[in-house]
Amino acid sequence: MIVARSLTQLFDRKPALRDLSLTIGTGEMFALIGPDGAGKTTFFRIVTGLLKPSSGEIVKEGHPDFGFVPQKFALYTDLTIDENLALRAKLYGLETKAAKLRGQELMERVGLARFGARLAGNLSGGMKQKLALVAALLTTPNLLLLDEPTTGVDPMSRREFWTMLHQLHHEGLTIVVSTPYMDEANRCDRV
Fold first, then answer.
1. Contact 176, 191 (CB under 8 A)
2. d(Cα 130, Cα 191) in Å, to the nearest integer?
3. What pLDDT does residue 68 have?
4. What pLDDT was estimated at residue 64?
5. How far apart are CA 83 and CA 120, in angstroms?
6. Residue 94, pLDDT score
7. Other C-beta atoms within 10 Å of 180: how many?
8. Under 8 Å CB-to-CB from 6, ≥6 apart: which residues?
9. What angle do CA 149, 153, 159 make, to 5 degrees?
10. pTM for the full model?
11. 46-67, pLDDT tens digit by residue?
12. CB-based contacts of 26: which residues, under 8 Å, 6+ apart?
């Protein structure tokens, strides 16, 4: 699904990535592990098309539709959960009724269904990450990219989040997750 060949990314002549080559297969749960500054976020920026590599290439075989959960919460904190999902559906051109049903199903699945009227800015860290996951899955992608999704999240929410990821993976979703935690990386098919 994703093939990286000799990816190098320089910022002010300093390498963020140096000659990275890897292949991530369809249906795989793949972990990128490394400390802060190792280039994990840079890799995601290249995969999503937000950044063109200094050299090398990235090939997304089959033109996958992807959902992305960034490291920092990127939804509107002054909108409710329901308003954030409705806005995302409109931005992606999803049919309103189908998007609402999909959103409700996903909200039930992650335990946020009763909080739809709550402002996103008033959610706990774990709830924000669950909302970000729902937003990423709203478009029914076949590739899910998660950039350190549990950093700064309490242990219980972290465990719940990984349980959800494993359920999604067993349903056939290709997942690429970056993490600084070895115990999380070990939950994946390949590191």
1. no
2. 23
3. 96
4. 82
5. 9
6. 96
7. 15
8. 19, 20, 21, 55, 56, 57
9. 80
10. 0.93
11. 999 999 999 999 999 887 899 9
12. 1, 62, 142, 174
- Res 37 pLDDT > 90: no
CA distance 61 to 52: 17
Distance separating alpha carbons of residues 144 and 118, to the nearest angstrom = 26
Structure tokens at 49: 């098309």
pLDDT of res. 74: 94
Instruction: Give the other-Cβ count within 10 Å of 48's Cβ.
Output: 15
**Residue 189, pLDDT score:** 94
Over the chain, what HEC string results? CEEEEEEEEEECCEEEEEEEEEEECCCCEEEEECCCCCCHHHHHHHHCCCCCCCEEEEEECCCCCEEEECCCCCCCCCCEHHHHHHHHHHHCCCCHHHHHHHHHHHHHHHCCHHHCCCEHHHCCHHHHHHHHHHHHHCCCCCEEEEECCCCCCCHHHHHHHHHHHHHHHHCCCEEEEEECCHHHHCCCCEC
Two tokens, residue 118: 């709550």
Q: Which two tokens stand for residue 89?
A: 């559906």
Each residue's pLDDT tens digit, 15-35:
999 999 999 999 999 999 988
